[in-house]
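ASSEMBLY PREDICTION REQUEST
Request ID: AP-0331
Submitted by: J.K., bench scientist
Number of chains: two
Total residues: 803
Priority: normal
Notes: Please return the full assembly, not individual chains.
Input sequences:
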Amino acid sequence: MAGDTKMHKLETTKMVNEWTNKYYDDLYQLRLQGKPAAWVIGQMPYELFLAMDIPFLQWENVAIRTVNRKGEGQFKKTSEAYGFNSDVCSYSRIATGCALLGEADPSTTTIERPDLLLPKPSFITMSQPCPAMGYWFEATRRIFKVPTFAIDLPTIYRPYDKDEVEKAVQYVEKQMLDYVHFLEEMTGRRMDWDRLKDIMKIIQKAATLRKEITDLNKNVPAPMSFFDALITLAPVNILRGRPETVEYFEKLKAEVEYRVANKIGAIPNERHRLYWDHIGVWYKVGELARRFASYGAVVLIGYYTNSILYHEPEYINPDKPMRTIAEALFIRMTLRNSSMPYKVDELVRLAEEFKLDGLIMHSSRTCRPMDFGQPDVIEAVRQRSGVRGLLIESDHCDPSYYDENSVNSALDSFFELLESDKKGVPA
Amino acid sequence: MQEVLDKMFAVADRPYDYLNRWKSETNKKIIGCLPMYFPEEIIHASGALPIVVPEGEEPISVGHSRVQNYICGYARSTLDIALKGRLSFIDGWVSDDVCHSTRGLAMLIEWDVKPAFYRAIYFPQIVNVPYARDYLTDQLKTFKGDLEKFTGKEITGELLGNSIHVYNKHRALLRKVYDARRSNPGVISGRQMWAIVSSGMLMPKEKHIKLLEQLLESLKAKKPAAAGKIKVVLSGSLCESAPVQLFDLIEQIGAVIVDDDLYVGSRYVGKDVNPALEPLEGLADRFLTMAPPCPTRVNGEGDWAEYLVDMVRRAKAQAVISIMAKYCEPHAMAYPSVVRMLKATGIPELTLETEHGDVPRGQYRTRLEAFVEMIR
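STATUS: Completed
Returned structure:
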């Protein structure tokens, strides 16, 4: 391994950091005032909360924030002491620990990170793109006894079967209206459908810009890395629907277009173009970005940053918010996860469109649903497109499962192989 | 009684021999159902033999090249033995998406094993959704059509109704066996109960019904078996086949198993299909309102912890032994609430973690002995 770890940071990232910090400050203020917020497990249509002024926290996002602020230690210990063993999803362990400590009596329990505690629940709501969120919800509702609403998301086993997909979308769409009625019950307010339509238009505009920005990564050198995208998901996640998100994507697009016009890459010395599978390693984003850069490797596309969260603007119709949420947000997010033919086809296509040299298949110790099939995907993509893949094992949110030596030596060998490929030397 | 049990053990202990022989004798198709709760009645009505694919017995080798080793043992093992060709008697594979492990396993069966017939179907996880029943009934209708194409035989409403009748009869008989054990603990050992249910998951139900009838007849004559022993209820062990050596151990140290909610156990029995409903709707209804409550489901009727307490009280048991398969996330997530409920109601509980492979007998024996001592 050698070389410069310099990377070109995006200016617009600062905007996202500011907004996210404010979002969490507001939540913390609610806690100090003894007021509740809606608890979200899994992915939810936050646009509905925005339309109805419902404060909310999303527990996976909280877990990510916690681990980035190195606050997960006591949270993990607390949930493990409660009985959740260390094999279960690390998001849920950190989140449940935080939730439990949020209720603890500070006179009898020393709380190491009171700054990371959050409001109690007004209600708990969940959807399960992964079924573990269902189990997590079940555990949580047994501890915190408040009203709940859960949205059932079908697994799509045959994403090429239009009938199967359409039935799933309609099944979810029906539930969405019930969900709005639930929110009306919880708040004592009626849904403002005009306001929601405006929000959906913002989401549509933002999603369109985001897709255009993604496509700009087809250029060589790639102007924006997966690591940049990972830390700026908030505008399409917890902050989505807000007017400033359009401003953000417009500025980001301008920044990225400038780079394309001037052949400025996310890293100065681009040699290897990569895809990242599964969730990122949240506590190693910067470090991995630098390590990859030192090999001249840029990760420029990934499932988590490009295949979820309204990633297909053509499915967004502001006149039909319930259908849009069911289809564009929910079903289109998971439909590649349970079909090997679809996954492989998708990666072969991306390899060509984005001129990829390799796949990084991140296998997460405690996020098993997306771990299945990774060795086979590597083999199949290699056969069909010649692109190599590397399986690296760690965990998306639990640093205790990260083996530095193992990951680093795997990356080292992989980049050596890619270099040999470039030189035409048999590996 | 021993004669009937011998027949059941022959199937349960050597399932591949039995199924290969059955297939060559009948020339019929075998459809392997991934655990748990697949509505076998539809397959039965098609004339094929539905089986619950039993967990493999051998160490995992080839499977580890396809699947990471922190996936549950059932998934790793099943893929492993399928790749090794042990399950070549299975013509088609079906799955009802019971958890993310079987979801991933089903996907890999399609890709790596390439069976002639493969259907993985989404069965609603959030079972109280008002539209879940219609959605699932429709999914089952589609499945029925696919199965008809594969078997070349129409599955009429009448055939389905008949299959439901057969399965309800089978379940009624299994419940009687459980009643017999509950009222006379020790009359059936843990290992024997495993063989009874396990053979029932593999044999044609009509044949197994006959064996159960004979078994029940022979149980009538039995004398009280286990006076003075500590009575335990076994809980957990979802998709995997709980290691029978563990049951032997429990009995060796002086306890007796009086009831269970294991999958290869009373969980396989579950509720009957409501015969008043249209067949496919009845099957959907049975799934959505399942009992015992399942930790893979959300917003199900009833609470697993409460169900377990009721089970302990009904059987006049003194303790619960939880059998927790390593890497089984649904069980691990539900576990804290179950343990808390048992503690709150004063029921002693011991958790034994199991993995695919050998039972750590020494370690378990020590823990079991200490546990039983504490209860005495």
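REVIEWER COMMENTS: Residues 329 and 369 of chain A are 19 Å apart (CA to CA).
SIGN-OFF: pending second reviewer
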